[in-house]
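Good day; I would like, with your permission, to put a structural problem before you. What I wish to show you is a protein chain and, alongside it, a tokenised description of its three-dimensional fold. Please examine both parts with care and let me know of anything in them that strikes you as inconsistent. Thank you for your consideration; the sequence and its tokens are set out here:

***
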Amino acid sequence: MKLITFSVNGRSRIGEVEGETVYTLAWQDSMRQMIRRSLVAGRAYERFPLDKVTVHAPLMPGKILAIGLNYADHAKETGKEPPAAPLIFAKLTSAVVGPNEPITWHESITHEVDYEGELAVIIGRRAKNVPEAEAIDHVFGYTCANDVSARDIQFGPDGQWTRAKGLDTFCPLGPWIVTKDEIAGPHALTIKTQLNSKKMQDGTTADMLFKIPALIAYISKHITLEPGDAILTGTPAGVGRARKPAVYLKDGDKVTVHIEGIGDLTNPCRVLPD
């Protein structure tokens, strides 16, 4: 199933996408609360053409954990050795935006805004000290993510990544959650990022250093994962900072993350006046 959060006439709803049609689900609360209840509501009587609804981020995660340097080619392009264990950091839920919502920043704060296309895992069952062999049972589904990063802050005075990766609008998610049963091989998906008309990243989730079961097992030793949490699993090579010369997002740009079996997450870019 493709589960979507959308609005029509200003009213937010949960739905199922089939083809080019959105079927409203008989659920009055949020996507996260539906996941926390361990259910998927049935269809209600209303349906809408997909191109006539406003698509939002599929859920507001309880927390967002991300993994740094989880692709060897990305570690290499940054001049770093691949980590011996998953490198965990957090992104802020206040950074979440949905498809077609702008990524925004003030140039008084950052001049070096970069993209990172990533597969996001949505947790479906509480996970604490989960064995790797059982970890995939705790997955609800998958969506696309863009780990937008202010490189001049990330590698500047802060000494850590919270502000650089937590600025408002720096965590696009969407366009929907594809449930686990529809993606039998999450480690065999192409993942691409396009900036305007140019392909910038072209990788495969097969190249993850730490696969999804290993990530869930490792994280759950340290941090309890709850239904509706999101794990951003890392980005392949091709980020803007690693290019010669570096390529950063500009006002008016459009960036698209495409993941096989899920779809496209597109966001325009806009510099805000100071």
Summary: The two ends are 43 Å apart (CA to CA). The mean pLDDT is 97. DSSP finds five helices and 19 strands in the chain.
